[in-house]
Design brief:
Number of helices: 4
CATH architecture: Roll
Helix content: 25-40%
Largest sheet: 7 strands, mixed
CATH superfamily: Bifunctional nuclease domain
Structural class: alpha+beta
CATH class: Alpha Beta
Radius of gyration: 15 Å
Number of strands: 7
Shape: globular
Strand content: 35-45%
Number of domains: 1
CATH topology: Bifunctional nuclease domain
Strand order of the largest sheet: 3-2-1-7-4-5-6
Order of helices and strands: EEEHHEEEHEH
Distance between the termini: 26 Å
Length: 139
């Protein structure tokens, strides 16, 4: 990979989740962990915001949510979440990937940013959440 192809990622943390029940939308606020502490605001659906909020606050329901179920499946298959990365912003859509280490090796899956964040937070030790520098620049 040449220097021109390298992507710089910034470590982020969940800073806030804002629910707007009247508009049936929510926003996820990610804040840079170091440096200038820039914020990235991502609009997400109420269900996704609820899943992230529950994972962020380590809440477990009486029945597994989809994110909890996927976490249980990953554990059973001995797959570890290495990182959740938001890799680009295109026409208002955030693109992410989930980086896993499995018994058969490393696998990277394209996914929604909200799913990647929720799964990263659901790990026994939260997996790093990363945002490409270019995404901060575009926002």
């Amino acid at each position: 990979m040449s220097d021109a192809d390298e992507v710089t990622f910034r470590v982020v943390q969940v800073a806030d989740i804002a629910f707007d029940f009247f508009a049936t939308t929510s926003t996820l606020v990610l804040r840079e962990a170091e440096g200038s502490h820039r914020e990235l605001i991502i609009p997400i659906a109420l269900a996704d915001a609820t899943a992230i909020h529950q994972a962020w606050r380590h809440l477990v329901g009486r029945r597994p949510t989809t994110t909890e179920l996927v976490t249980f499946i990953l554990q059973e298959l001995q797959a570890d979440v290495i990182a959740a990365r938001i890799v680009r912003l295109d026409a208002g859509v955030f693109y992410a990937e989930l980086d896993l280490m499995t018994p058969k090796g490393r696998r990277v899956f394209d996914c929604r940013a909200s799913d990647a964040i929720a799964l990263a937070l659901r790990q026994a030790v939260a997996a790093p959440m990363l945002v490409a520098e270019d995404v901060f620049v575009q926002d």
